[in-house]
Each structure stands twice: as C-alpha cells, then as structure tokens.
Write a structure and sequence with these properties.
Length: 213
C-alpha cells in the first residue's frame, strides 16, 4: 500500500525543518512488489504556516499569552488536577490601573508596548506549569496550579504586583504602573471555570473601588 508520513528533522546547526515522505510500491507483471519508490519533499514553509495558524487560534496576537479560549481549557484542566491531588487553584484577575492615561497621553502604539512588556513580566514571574493569559485591553489572568496554602498565593500575588510596578521606559522617560488584582480560589469559591473567572473579575473591581493597587 502507499504511505505518507511527515518527518521532523534538525540540521547540524540545530535548525528545525520538516519533510513529507511519500512511498509507493512498484509491482511486476505478476502483481508482486519488487521495490518501492519514495519522494521526499521539504514542507518546512507550509508546516510553519500551519503551526502559526494554530498558535493564532489559541494565543493573544499582541502579547503571545494564552487567549480566552486556551485560558478556559487551562482552568478546567487545573481544576481537575486539583481535585485529584486535593490541592487548590488560584485565579488572579489583573487590571492595570490608569492604563487609559497612557493610551491617551502617549498613543496606542506606546500602549501596546506597555501591554507587551506587562505580558512578558507576568510570564516571567509564574512557574512553568502555571498560565498567563490576556483577555483583551489591559485585562490579564494568571492561573496558579497546585497551591497547598493560601500563603503561597499571597506570595505569588506580591511577586506579580512588584513586577508590574517596575519602571517602564517610555519616550525618554520612565513611568510606573500599579495593578488591581481579584482572586478566586478553587475549590473554596467554586469548581466551575466560568464561575471562578467571574468571581475573580468581581473581586478585581472591588479592589479598584477600595483604592486600586
């Protein structure tokens, strides 16, 4: 029978490339297979394009963080794992304080740079198994898996707030931003992904009402 397979390869310098190998049998007059013919094609460009399309479907285009769809999948997975391990999951709903002033004062291009930098800082201050996502605008969510104590969540929140607070260079000057964070805990508040996100969102607005940061 004919066969087709995609191969992932690496060049000597470590660069990744993709081949598609097509094999077909060649038969003699009696119908017996005498040998095979193979065709090897380089499909690196089309494979990269396919992978990029898949990534765009699950990640925020501006920051590279998870988008809402991937976030909800990660929350559901974290909840299931927490049930098995009898641990907690913390959902942090993060909103930048005063971000509109940056957009209005410096322009949307500068605002986008601030959002990218914020996304990088969030990703750099969570563990490998945790998730950082951008919902849109200046709203971010962090999922902290496998939390044994509430104190561990508090430490992570402080670390994120400190990272956001670091000065940001903008047009030959530096600005500082604070953020307001709302927190929901699984299973204490809910074991449903949508409810956990809603409760964290409500808590974030409560934090802003009480003075931001």
């Amino acid at each position: 029978e004919e066969g087709r397979v995609v191969l992932r390869n690496y060049r000597k310098n470590g660069d990744l490339f993709w081949n598609e190998l097509y094999l077909a049998p060649v038969r003699d007059e009696q119908g017996r297979i005498t040998h095979y013919v193979g065709v090897l094609s380089d499909i690196t460009d089309s494979k990269k394009y396919q992978l990029e399309l898949e990534r765009r479907a699950t990640h925020d285009l501006l920051t590279g963080l998870a988008n809402r769809g991937l976030l909800m999948d990660r929350i559901q997975l974290a909840v299931m794992q927490a049930k098995r391990r009898t641990q907690k999951v913390a959902l942090l709903f993060i909103d930048l304080d005063g971000f509109k002033i940056i957009n209005d004062g410096f322009g949307h291009a500068t605002g986008d740079q601030v959002l990218k930098l914020t996304g990088n800082r969030l990703a750099a201050n969570i563990r490998q198994g945790d998730t950082a996502a951008r919902l849109g605008g200046d709203e971010f969510v962090v999922v902290l898996n496998d939390q044994e104590r509430i104190e561990d969540v508090s430490d992570a929140v402080q670390r994120i707030m400190d990272a956001v607070l670091r000065p940001i260079p903008i047009q030959h000057q530096e600005i500082t931003l604070t953020c307001s964070i709302g927190i929901s805990i699984c299973p204490d508040d809910s074991e449903d992904a949508d409810e956990l996100l809603k409760f964290a969102d409500i808590a974030m607005y409560k934090a802003k009402e009480e003075g931001k940061s």
